């Protein structure tokens, strides 16, 4: 699968064929760009490295910051002023980006630092990125879990140089830069230096080595060299007092001469950074080829966990790249917490928990369960040390308080891990922290009034209580479990029985329709509250645009009136954003898996493609890409419920390696899908040879592996309409009449 990955997918604005049919009725308000980067990454590793332009997205792109519509260009071509370290993957406007320790290979004097050169002959593969600058310098970079190795191939020149800017960070757009608060750097030996910058309260240390033995090694400040200087210290830096500073190696080059720079990073000081470098790359002096080979091998192992027989090379590229993007974040950095002692797990770039908890975290739990446990333990430690299970957590002091976006989302990951019986977590400890966390922010309103606004938090918190009750039962505390289950029943308070939709409220990145079809733990009661199957399906049909006219999508700088008209459509966002990403599977709880098949078919084959513009919206740390991985396999996880719903896959055959087991998904009657063509339906299913009438598997069944056989056809047969996916009834008896479907 690794050979089919294209890391450039998602780096430019959405550029897909005009939608047809059902997909043409969907409205996409959020930035129409994947916000990915093509730089070198390591699976769930701490470090990434990529060419740096200073523009959005992630510092690699050529666009201005965008929150709606098509982003506006600020460069007419791909540029770079060097290669920087630490990038987000697919996130939107999250306030800050990293891009620390920029390396600029130069033939010009130091005064020219910050010059941007056009990029030519860009190439990328998992774990490796390369490009040639206008100056003729070929730049390559690869990374390890906590390291990066650069290789620069120079033309003949009397005084080439490699300049490392310790003061650099963020984006070069308004309010985008990151200023170090304190810093130091020092030369420790010929060809070796180290230092530390404190950025947003986090100390990031580096140990760097250069293999150009005959080159001069110099510190510099404010673009002026400091001959003979061996150390720079900055006790207090402000935006108004910042002057660039860093380190440089310089010397003559012959044509085709290559020079390597090796970086080790740590959040616990330069000595640990040095240890990380040597653990990842050996003692040197050179290590680019070996490190790239090792990283490629690790990526191959991860990407080979899922194999598909794609109908075309293009669809294999889309799938392989989606799997790749799903395995970049979060950053797992064991024994690296700068805020509390100990050798335990630490994680950052849990940047958009409200996007990843439904798709990407269940994918990690399935494919790399030991890393999912590591992440869970890291989140629990954050809660113990800082008081809350984070909704967002970056390389910065303190959890990001993304209070509007969601509540109690980590509870779904913890409940799934607990029910699967995966080792490595003290569940009494976890239960105490999960229970306390339910009172954060909107949790007090939920407890006191049974309803929290924004009303989507009522659904979050009810699910959080239900997930916590599962852990309570696991540790044998039945009394607490019953109390938590009673509170979990309050999800019903979020809905207006007169409409079958959520109550009027404020909503984050969407409207009440986008949030009204969440897969709550008691979907039978949810459908009953709406008035029954027919009324619920009617609402879904209205939401997905069955029978509706095509709509126009926002362009560059959409105005308030244009956005208001679009939001008033109350329409599915077509995977341009994540709040309604699970809604297509709500049909299955009402006995209509055929409708799920039609919607998912339109998304998979019209909203994802090849090329730099192949994503419909922000990838959001793999939340979007992991949706595609699941959906094209004919599966969808119900987060927190250890349930996987079934649908027609986009591949004739697939194999998923799950620990020591393999799940084979085989089809009969498969017809290669066409963009805009008809959907295929599951007409019958067998699991390990036995008939399977239900449209779901438990996560435990998935983990056991075996053979899932799906008979596909051009018309539905009623398969999967009964029995329905499990609901977990509380004490709710819906008695409301069937509402009319809003026009």
UniProtKB/TrEMBL annotation:
Residues in Glycosyl hydrolase family 92 N-terminal domain copies: 5-169
Alphabetical UniProt keywords: Hydrolase
Entry GO terms, CC: cytosol
SUPFAM superfamilies the UniProt entry points to: Six-hairpin glycosidases
InterPro entries for the chain: 6-hairpin_glycosidase_sf (IPR008928), GH-type_carb-bd (IPR014718), GH92_N (IPR041371), Glyco_hydro_92 (IPR012939), PNGase (IPR050883)
Domain spans labelled Glycosyl hydrolase family: 272-714
Gene Ontology BP term (one): carbohydrate metabolic process
Pfam families, alphabetized: Glyco_hydro_92 (PF07971), Glyco_hydro_92N (PF17678)
Disordered, as annotated region: 707-743
Molecular functions per Gene Ontology: carbohydrate binding; peptide-N4-(N-acetyl-beta-glucosaminyl)asparagine amidase activity
Transmembrane parts of this sequence: none
Name of this chain's protein: Glycoside hydrolase
Lineage start: Bacteria, Bacillati, Actinomycetota, Actinomycetes, Micrococcales
